[in-house]
Design goal:
23 strands; globular; about 500 residues; five-stranded mixed beta sheet; binds glycyl-adenosine-5'-phosphate; seven-stranded mixed beta sheet; alpha+beta
Amino acid sequence: MAKITKLEDIVSLCKRRGFIFQSSEIYGGLASCYDYGPLGVELKHNIKKAWWKAMVQMRNDIVGLDCSILMHPLVWKASGHADKFADLIAECKKCNTRTRVDHLANHAEEHTEHVSLDLAKVTAADLNNKVCPNCGAVGKFTEPMPFKLMFETQMGANVDDSMTLYLRPETAQGIFANFRNVLDSTRVKIPFGIAQIGKSFRNEVTTKAFIFRTREFEQAELEFFCEPGTDDKWYEYWKQHRFDWYINLGLKKENLRMRDHAKDELAHYAKGCVDIEYKFPFGSGDWQELEGIANRTDYDLRQHQRGMRTLNAWFENKGDLSKIQLKEEAEDYLTGPLSYFDDEKKKRYIPYVIEPSAGMDRSALAFLVDAYDEEEVRGETRNLLRFNHALAPIKVGVFPLVKKDGMPEIGHNIHDNLKKYFTCFYDEKGAVGRRYRRQDEAGTPFCVTVDGQTLADKTVTVRERDSMEQIRVATNQLLQFFREKLDV
Ligand code: GAP
């Protein structure tokens, strides 16, 4: 029976085994930024690979994209991020710590990634009985104020034409901005999707819980374009598809749930939104968002049509977005450049969009937490990660039992052969029991040991991680054996 995992156990295993390190640790660390070590980078790569396989490779109706992080500033004006992507914060007058107002108001139920500025109705008086999470002072908050979440940067060396850009806070807008390009350069027909995996950046007020909420993170997003009127059906479809993806990769059903957003929680553009939540082991063992699935209607494509009409005004005021008013929607917007013409139905419309948006770092944390286990084996505690085979950073460990009698040579041969197909690890140092334990902690599903019997009959011991069962397999059958077992 799996032990209830504490976050500290995961953090310490991640550091000990080289999954995740604090960024810039040798300089004291950089808050809320993390680096993936040798095992972590393989794990995250496998999660992204599994997402891409399910969302692009196995689909006839989805194509991929990789957009630049820096985009034209009007993108963020049109999307609403330049004006509205902010959290409402209040500062503690005693210790100067800033806290999100929604976290103060609703500390135990911290669900949203960011809150709408509609919360601006909240005043300092409403925070009279609220406790500063940093110093414990009660009711010492300033009037709430908006805090913009996008990181700014300057592009260009010349003062005259340098301009302020943003690091993207979501990958989605790059997809909308390329909607026309994809339509014109491929044979896609609605319904179809465009998928992208990439880094996003948010100057979060509250970062927390290891890699759960960071300022630099990776998202995997699908924008699925469909005919208005079919959006409810596709929304239901993607909810189930995305929930099943996590289950099929081994997350335990009892730790995963869907939570529909209440009407007042919905973003201004969304017709519906559901969070896939995971029972993370922090706070009170709270359910927290792993992925959001939203019906974004035709909001984004319409907004970008407005943005395109506003381009000339931007050239005049270049750089100062705050002075630019987005042009009104043209009366004929339905036939605008981001509209779609359905050949068969002889109909033109702006497609609706269903968006499953997943966090890759948050997924990595959920898969780590869910896979972590401790058990007693012959009076000793065995720590292990019961990763799904597709996610395991190393698929096969290869060991010679001892460093003599030709065993290392045979081990190297096996390793050289298998590593063409799977991520493998060769280890000849220390007692074999300890080598098994190290691979258990790395989540390696199989280990191969070359021993005395190998010299006599050309078989090796294959030991399985979860059951610790050992069987003998002929060396010339190993590749076939792992191809069948690992199915990757
Ligand atoms: N395009 C929609 C969008 O960005 P979101 O709910 O803000 O929606 C989607 O983000 C997912 O991205 C979240 O469910 C979460 O997994 C991940 N995410 C968002 N902010 C994050 C942060 N600061 N750190 C880590 N992951 C984050």
